[in-house]
Amino acid sequence: QLQLQESGPGLVKPSETLSLTCTVFDGSISSGNYYWAWIRQPPGKGLEWIGSFYSGGSAYPSPSLKSRVNILGDTSKNQFSLTLTSVTAADTALYYCARGGRGLRDAGRFDYWGQGTRVTVSS
Amino acid sequence: DIQMTQSPSSLYVSVGDRVTITCRASQTIGTYVNWYQQEPGKVPKLLIYGASNLQSGVPSRFSGSGSGTDFTLTISSLQPEDFATYYCQQSYTTLMFTFGQGTKLEIK
Questions:
Q1: In chain B, whose CA is at the least distance from the CA of A107?
Q2: What gap in Å lies between CA A41 and CA A110, rounded to an integer?
């Protein structure tokens, strides 16, 4: 069964860069034409899509975060990563990685999720 | 951006109730709606995709309907494990996805 696991620092200072990694187990990020995504959830709030990655190397950040987000893949490690620059308290959230569907039309169908990693932005 | 508006934001219900949650899109989106369940402290789980398709392993008491701008998630007979928050999500706009604000089911 496919599993995803997020990792990264739990505390980031304001104005610095948040970096997270998602490792995929029992499945390959480079096969099956799947899209892979980052989604976050601020404390007590709803879900926000941050961006998606396609194993061919393309990244698709949310327009609202585009200037601060980069998503990259490392097929040799079966991982994909998120960097978010110039963080503020508003970026404090539970960050999830997830698998989207096959192909562009199903890319937003998130069927497997990691457990999430909590990130707090504070000095 | 396409906005997804769920109603109600919270709903007080009892075990055995038939529950209906509504989601309205700010523009027509065909059937590109997915529904997720998030139990307290847990990871979101895909229930319905393409407005009406039941995800594998999801109990048949869950169903989805709708097209265009108005969508519905129905739980035919609420079970204790169904007390959770439910989110709709549009996947119409290619690689620009948005979620509704959530509907929380609470015990009456």
A1: B95
A2: 15
Which residue matches tokens 């169903």?
B63
Give the other-Cβ count within 10 Å of B12's Cβ: 11
Q: A110 to chain B, minimum CA–CA distance in Å?
A: 7
* Nearest CA-CA partner of A96 in B33, B81, B99: B99
pLDDT tens digit sequence for A13-49: 999 999 999 999 999 999 888 999 999 999 999 999 9
Integer angstrom CA distances of residue A38 from A62, A113, B20? 10, 10, 29
Phi, psi for B80 (deg, rounded to 5):
-55, -35
* CA nearest neighbour of B49 among B29, B66, B35: B35
